[in-house]
Known about the structure:
The structure holds two protein chains of two kinds. Chain A is an alpha+beta fold. Helix content of chain A is 11%, strand content 22%. Chain A has one helix spanning 58-68, and strands spanning 33-40, 48-55, 76-81. A three-stranded antiparallel sheet of chain A has the order 2-1-3, with helices on one face. Residues 1-29 of chain A have low confidence and may be disordered. By secondary structure, chain B is mainly alpha-helical. Chain B has one domain: Up-down Bundle (Ferritin), CATH 1.20.1260.10. Chain B has ten helices and no strands. In chain B, α2 packs across α8 (200-207), α5 (115-137) runs parallel beside α7 and α7 (174-195) packs antiparallel against α9 (214-230). The two termini of chain B are 18 Å apart. The interface between A and B is medium-sized, with 26 and 28 residues.
Amino acid sequence: MSGGRPVGAGRGREASTGQGASAGSAGTSLGEEVYEVFARKKRGDALRHVGCVDAPGSALARVYAWKTYDEENWFEMCVVPRKAILPAGPPSGRPASG
Amino acid sequence: MSGPASERSSSGMSGPAKPASPDRDPDPGPLARHILSLADSKRLLGIRYSDWLLGSPSIETGIAASSMAQDEWGHARLLYSMLREFGFDPFAVEHERPAARYYSACALDGEFEDWAALVAGVVVVDGALEVALESLGAGRYALARSRVPKMLAEEAHHRHFGAAWFERLGGAGGEAAERLREEAESMLPGTLAWLLPADDVYEALAAEGHVRPEAQVRRRYEEQVGAVLAAVGVRIEDVEPDRNGWDAERRRGPGAPAEEAVERARGDRNRALFVE
């Protein structure tokens, strides 16, 4: 609807310049939480990780995610509190990368 | 003039000698007046959101404000373009009117002073615009029926944003909640008058099936924003529209948007680059 809007990919956390939470933390200095953002382009596609947002709750996390990662005409987008993601491996408890 | 004959005749505004803009036409017709009122309010609301692209409480909130500003300008552009069907030149309407000829809601005349004012504006003013748009989209004007649903889908995000921030500030209590209450109470009477003008124009629109009757619109507005406002003790059902100094021609209260905002809305600095 908003013709000429800049694509959102460069506006997300991964491309941001430092405002907000530090990577790897589930909380922020503003008492917000980090939410991971997942989306799929069309029905049947796998959900893929597209970035993350800081928000004080799920309602704003949903709005922030949709407004931040709007470079695609997503079929579906959802957010997950980072703290709700449980590590499953490797057995050492330390990710191999990332 | 590409619309169906029934729409053109319902406006009663066709003819070769029309002014470029409905604000210069002594009788532009109810529907053109109504569309201009919606479009100007959205254009100014976009300006007010854009004032907070930087300096908002977090980068995500600034991005959301940016996106909402773009949404409002996109909606305004679509609404202005509808005026072509009534014989007006959308370019002249968008880029050539002085502030004193704007039909926008009074609550948008000045900047949102602080973040509480912006949040109140999202709930009160953007909420009223959403309800007005919904009413127009449910009417019999074909272009609105086709274009409004997409706008309303975007407006839903604005409503969620406003409600969540209102709950956050209101729940914090203290000065934040007090500022929120002050701003909401300040904006509501004039915004209710804009939404429910109780004038001949609205009566004609409702009679022709272009908008819902005012009682329905008020009820819908109360449904949409009443519970949110109640969080800071504002009872919307007790608020009366303030029609003091009502400008019947522009269908708004007295005054005009700040000249600086209108210069931005018209794109004065980029005038040499216009290619439309």
